[in-house]
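Protocol step 4 of 6: structure prediction from sequence.
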Amino acid sequence: MFSSTLLVASLAPLYALGAPQFGGVFPDPASLTVSSISGSATVSIATASTTVVASTGSSNIAATASSASVSPADTSIANDPVIIGELFLAAKASDRINMIQQDASFKFDFASPPDKSETKGLGGHTVRADRESFPPLIGTGVSMTVGFLGPCGFNTPHTHPRSSEINIVVQGTLQTEFALENGAKTVHNTLGKHQMTVFPQGALHTEFNPNCDDAVFVAGFASEDPGVQQAAQTFFSLDQDVIEAAVGNDFTFQGTDVTKFKGLIPANVARGVESCLKKCNIK
């Protein structure tokens, strides 16, 4: 029987090359099947697209690994306060890596995300991978959100208190705006596929899909926990006398007072703007 130790050692030259033949991801040696052993020191690994041969010493090993099957992401550690706490307390980065036992736990699936990572509304949804929903991010200083906006989908005005955001469109079109602070101009842009913009830390900003087709964006953050604060919901959570003082009169909107108006604010992701809804025949 050919030992697993020798098999791993035999594959070392391929690891050293960075396994470009496998798109930079080398198959796990434990998943390889040894199909022949003879005398010439050659390792042959075949995937769905290529065969790689490496020579090492005294045995000939032909091994196969299939790239057709993709293991699902492991969400069992998502939102687990015990694991999250232990990762925070780890003395070294290597300790954090070793504490997460399943390799699949280092993979996040935005198409099938863990609980508590989605924000849903009539206009679409966003999925966030932060240190709560994706604990392997702890210690890395980064996180990501993917937004799926339906026709006329509107990621309502909001801020991220702990990070700037870089936002790239990967499908469709987005209209974006941000306002950084008093005295700074409001910045407006229309982004097409593979175009990007930046929202500075703390800037009030929004993304809107002006078309009748879906749009998708990817947002990167320089924080594991960038936070989010929806502007309208936050403002109208203040005391009524504070709101009325801020707007300069007794506040009503289309005959609705503050208390009733709070219940009319749509959940993010919302539908708007009215002209888009009419264009796309959305009621």
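Step 5 (inspection) to follow. The longest helix spans residues 4-16.
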